[in-house]
Design brief:
325 residues; 11 helices; globular
């Protein structure tokens, strides 16, 4: 199945970014109410995994896509995209209290931009190798600057260098997650890419939660409110949008579009939630600048269709990088 036009795919990713902002708010509130931040991530991933199991029963594309993956014989590391998603959940739980939300977010986006440039240059995503051009570097820098502007005025924690580098590494992990999941979807199907992501990330999240003592304390009193348990549903939609975006536009532009959607989602939450702070002008300007960064990064002298190593219209890349027709 051919990916949609880049503009359509990036619009879907922006919507996924908006869902990501809602997911973060939901998981944080659930973790706060039950008294353990990692339990929010556990509920998120278990909910997504449950939806994947339902999908295996009702979606032929998921079953056929997983079957195609068995025949594709991709390298083992191609299946590790979900580890990037699990890593950022864990790192956020430890880094945000130290750095503050503002510095953590900027560091994560900086890492995501670096990881996106590197992943595109290495050809990890199914669009093939994309050159390291001035517009792409400028778009990455503009995206980081836009997020820094959006975080203006938020509290800053301790600027611990080690924790800051971990936040950057988490952003790189998110970029690798998008690239590898896109590679899986190109070899199988978009639904298969989402399924593999949760199959990898959920055991890792459960392991981290167990090591953090989330399952060994007193019985948890689960709060009422159905919206607190929608993180998994939102997560499936977010991963699916990234899979579509990476196949059509590469890792860097997909990551920037996701960030733009996250900032737009933050604005919506500020407007809609009864006790949320007033929507801030820097966030609005940052969201617009991030979407501008997507356009700037797309001004490449070479399109995905003329990349160094790409996906032929007839099929996905083979493990050795050759085209499958």
């Amino acid at each position: 199945m051919r990916p949609p036009p880049a503009a359509v795919a990036l619009a879907l990713v922006t919507a996924g970014g908006t869902a990501s902002a809602a997911q973060g708010a939901v998981n944080a509130e659930l973790g706060q109410r039950v008294g353990n931040a990692t339990l929010g991530a556990v509920v998120n991933n278990l909910g997504g995994t449950l939806l994947i199991l339902v999908g295996l029963l009702v979606l032929p594309s998921m079953r056929s896509g997983l079957g195609a993956l068995r025949r594709a014989r991709l390298p083992w590391w191609s299946y590790l995209g979900g580890a990037g998603g699990a890593a950022i959940v864990v790192l956020a739980a430890y880094a945000v209290p130290v750095l503050g939300v503002a510095v953590f977010t900027i560091a994560q986006v900086a890492g995501g931009s670096l990881g996106g440039l590197a992943s595109d240059r290495a050809g990890l995503a199914p669009v093939g190798r994309l050159p390291l051009t001035a517009p792409r570097v400028a778009g990455a820098l503009l995206g980081v600057a836009a997020v820094a502007l959006a975080q203006a005025g938020r509290p800053v924690g301790d600027l611990a260098v080690g924790v800051l580098l971990l936040a950057v590494a988490g952003g790189v992990g998110v970029a690798l997650q998008a690239a590898l999941n896109g590679r899986i979807s190109a070899a199988g199907s978009a639904a298969a890419g989402v399924a593999v992501n949760f199959a990898v990330s959920t055991p890792l999240v459960l392991l981290v939660a167990a090591l953090a003592g989330a399952f060994s304390g007193p019985p948890v009193s689960w709060p009422a409110g159905w919206h607190l348990y929608t993180g998994g549903l939102l997560g499936v939609g977010i991963v699916a949008s990234l899979v579509v975006g990476v196949r059509a536009a590469g890792v860097l532009r997909t990551g920037l579009a996701l960030v733009g959607g996250q900032l737009a989602g933050a604005l919506l939450l500020d407007v809609l939630l009864p006790h949320a702070p007033t929507a801030r002008l820097p966030v609005l300007v940052g969201a617009l600048l991030t979407l501008l960064a997507v356009l700037v990064a797309g001004r490449s002298p070479r399109s995905p269709a003329t990349a160094d190593v790409g996906v032929a219209p007839g099929g996905p890349p083979a493990p050795d990088g050759k085209l499958v027709r």
